[in-house]
Amino acid sequence: MSQRPIGLFLRSLADNLLAALLMLAGLRRAFVHLHPSPAQFLFFLTGSLLTSLVFDLISEGFPGSPDPVGFAVFLLPPFFWVIFGLFLAQRYGVWRLVLGPVILWLVADILVGLFQSAIQWAGQNSLLPLWLGDAIPNIYLVLFAWPTVAVILVFGRQLAWGWWLRGAVMSGVLVFLYGWTYLFADQRLWFAQTEIGEVAPPRITEEAAVYLQPLLLSRALARVEPGTPGQVDWYFLGVGGAAYQSVFRRETESVQSLFDTRFDTEGHSLVLINDDDTALTQPIATRTSITRALETLGQRMNRDEDVLFLFMTSHGTPEGLFELSHQPLQLESVTPEWLRSALDKAGIHWRVIVLSSCYSGMFIPALKSPDSLVITAAAADKASFGCSDDADFTYFGRAFFDESLRQENSLLDAVKSAGRSIAVREKEEGFQPSDPQVSLGVQMEKVLPVLEKGLFPDRSIIDDGEEGAP
Fold first, then answer.
1. Are 294 and 237 in contact (CB under 8 A)?
2. d(CA 248, CA 244)
3. Phi (first) and psi of residue 27, to 5 degrees
4. What φ, ψ does residue 464 adopt, rounded to 5°?
């Protein structure tokens, strides 16, 4: 006899689990198996709490600690469903309805929570396909709404509610639950402990940087050599704009190395970089340093023969700003109009400008001219990708500089090849196409093959051989 209550409890437990599964499938037969009781309510409330805790443990990791506020927040939806059940019981005179909605919702919440925990664990262990990663937040929203929608639909059908009443009740319940989610989105049952060590101040704020930066810029400009009369010389200026992500420094330095070694710009190149690691060794990128660099290059170049290759990489904004940042310095970002004005004032005639940033296509209307080739990593209304702090290149930088320019003997062929490579990668990873842009001026189109002979020595040999052929 002592085991009879346990047996009844377990049978009721199994029936309630079956009822929740039928409810999630939208079947009214759920009520045949529903056995609400205070003991069942407390059991499934504890199970739902533990399921939420498991999800937070997977998400946050160890070590950590529970959050009492999170536990209080967790109790709000079950309390709401109890109130909902009381309202139904009073209205229809069936006291079995008091705990019916909350038990069905709690059981469904446990089942859905276990599924969410499995997804979270698989995602954190790189077991999910890449295309699914971006959809996970939307999947979580659907899973969160599923038990709620199912409860209202099944109870509405069982109690013969009209469609308008079902819709009104469902809207009200969803507004409450999603409002609860929005208000308490940052609350967890478990928070990971993070050790916050002493953060060293940025090197750019050191006294040495105050005196070194003007000297570093002057030295870099002094090393730029004049062009050789009668010969096409290419000059390279690289700008890494955002100091808080080192990918821009690495990309700028790598592209300078490529130009100095393959394209023979050594003595004709310099870089301006915002990065804490180079604050005491490289001139930083500001409007002032960019202006001085362009002025110096314009003075050293032979106006009618030499070409400037300007490469700028950073974050961009939909408003058309190229970010220059080096906290805590207050730096102005680059606008298309400002950059065009600086190039014009420097007197630089032939220009190849490559901008790697989101929305960089915004710069084309201001920078395009008969004597310019402008290449951007993205269209005016598109983002570009790959700005990961542990990367050596952005997606565009990798495809254009590190791959295509090492193979092709034409800038236009290289950007076409890079565009195809980027499109494939973005599609595989589920990103919207960045759509790189090219603007080729009419005069630049005519002389670019001649100018490129100085950039691609191998091509010069091929062209000379073709010209001499019978």
1. yes
2. 9
3. -100, 135
4. -60, -40
Q: Is the peptide bond before 38 cis (omega within 30 degrees of 0)?
A: no
| Residue 129 DSSP class | -
Question: What are the distances in angstroms from CA 387 to CA 211, 244, 359, 371, 428?
Answer: 31, 11, 14, 31, 17
CA distances from residue 94 to 263, 410, 453, 462 in whole angstroms, order as listed:
85, 81, 90, 92
The torsion angles phi and psi of 426, rounded to 5 degrees, stand at -65, -40
Q: Which residue has the tokens 């689990």?
A: 17
**With b meaning 16 or more CB within 10 Å and e meaning fewer, what string describes 276-292?**
bebbeebbbbbbebbeb
Q: Which residues pair with 440 in a beta bridge?
A: 373
Q: Please indicate, yes or no, whether the overall pTM of this predicted structure exceeds 0.90.
A: no
Chain centroid offset of residue 314 CA: 14
List, for residues 59-101, the tens digit of each pLDDT value. 887 778 888 887 888 888 889 889 988 988 888 888 878 898 9
Kindly state the tokens that stand for 240.
């890494």
Helix (H, G, I), strand (E, B) or coil at 434: coil
**Residue 293 has which token pair?**
């660099």
CB 60 within 8 A of CB 188: yes
Q: What digits encode the pLDDT tens for the residues 7-39?
A: 888 898 999 999 999 999 988 888 888 889 999
Q: Answer whether 96's CB lies under 8 Å from 158's CB.
A: no
HSE-up (13 A, CA, CB side) for residue 22: 16
Gap between the Cα atoms of 7 and 294, Å rounded: 85
Task: Convert the pLDDT of each residue in 152-175 to its tens digit.
Answer: 888 888 888 888 887 888 888 878
Just give the CATH number of 203-455.
Answer: 3.40.50.1460
52 C-beta neighbours (distance < 10 Å), count: 21
Quick one: CA torsion of 106, 112, 114, 117, rounded to 10 degrees?
-130
For residue 185, name the pLDDT band (cuts at 50, 70, 90).
low
Distance, in Å, from the CA atom of 126 to the CA atom of 429, rounded to the nearest integer, reads 14
More confident residue, 354 or 469: 354
Nearest to 28 by CA among 146, 153, 144, 148: 153
Query: 170 forms bridges with which residues in the sheet?
Result: none
Provide CATH 3.40.50.1460 ranges for the chain: 203-455
CA dist 302 and 231 (Å) reads 9
In the chain, count H helices and then E strands.
18, 8
DSSP code at position 456 = -
